[in-house]
Structures are given as C-alpha cells and as structure tokens.
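User: Can you help me understand a structure? I only have the sequence.
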Amino acid sequence: MPVLRSFPEPDAREAEENLRSIRELMERSTRHSTFSGLSGVMDGAASIAGCVLTQSLTQKSAPTTEFRVDFIAIWSLVIVAAIGMDYLLTKRKAAMVGKRIISRLGKQMVIGAGPGLGTGALLTLFFMQRSIITEIYPMWMLCYGCAVCAVGLFSQREVLYLGAAFLAAGAVTLVLIPSWGLPMMAVTFGGFHIGYGLAMSRKDGW
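Assistant: Let's start by predicting it. Here is the structure, written out as tokens:
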C-alpha cells in the first residue's frame, strides 16, 4: 500500500516574506519613472522659442491668412520637436530602468490624453478661422491641463500637480488677464515644463 507523504504548510513568516517581495517589486515598478527630466527642460525651451517667434510674428503682421499659416507652422514645429525629444529621451530612460516605452500602460496614457489634446486642436482651428488669437492661449493651457491630468491618473502624482497648475493658469488667464496670453504661454509651457523637468531629474535622474 503506497505511503502518502504530507508536505509541510508554509508558515506565516514565509508568507509575509513572499508578500513583502511582491510589494517591493510593485513599488519599484512605479517608483522608477520613464519620464526624462531632460525632456521636460527641452520641451520648455522649445515652447519659449515658439513664444518668441510668435511675438515677433504678431508685431510684424495682422492676423491675415499668411499670419495664420505662419502661426500654425511655428507651433506645429514646436509640437513635432517636443514629441520627438520626448520619444527619444523617454526611450533612453525606459531602457535605463528596465521598462519598455511601448506598453499597455503607455497606450492607456495616450488614449487618456487624446480628448484634451483633440479638443485643443479643434478650438485652435475654430479661433484661427475667425482671426481670434488671444483666446487660443488660455484654451491651450486648459486643454493641455486636462490631458496631463488624465495621464496623471496612470502615472506619478507629480503629473497631476502639473496638470492642475496648467488648469489654474489657464483659468486665470482666460478670466482675468486674456491680453497676457502669450507671456503666460512662456510661463506655463516654458517655465512649468522646465521646473517639472528639473524637479523630476532630482528625483529620478536625467
């Protein structure tokens, strides 16, 4: 008759150790962000350059068809440069922390940011067709703030703070100081990004 062997059950101490190891792995995966601090600084610098070029363009010509084309060209270049730098630097940072830049979480972030960014693009076309420039800037801040807050739901809490700062600045600009829209663009898209990049570089490195 075969002898049935009894296997010892894991004790409470071993179970706690296993749970502790799992918790540490999960914390490590969220602690090390793939965001590059240098990316934030470069994005801010590109935005400030866009503001300077836009100010020069505004002083030279009225909001005609040629002005609208130049305006859209300037900020399209800023966006392309920012996205390109984000991709390259984030890819480098992801490799450093053992993550992939293209992941299920990354796709969820893109989907979450889509409505805010898409709304900003539509409002831009609406205001440009009517040669309304000053209202575009606070709308950009508000739409971008919504997009960043949506991304912050899947990321570190500092991202939510950045989105909230854009929302607050956009609301103040729209309601109280609409004529300061372009300088506030330099403060928000330029200064906020640079400040955020420097803060994150101290926390997670470049």
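Now, to help you interpret it: Residues 65-96 form the longest helix (32 residues). Residues 37-195 form one domain. Let me know which part you'd like to focus on.
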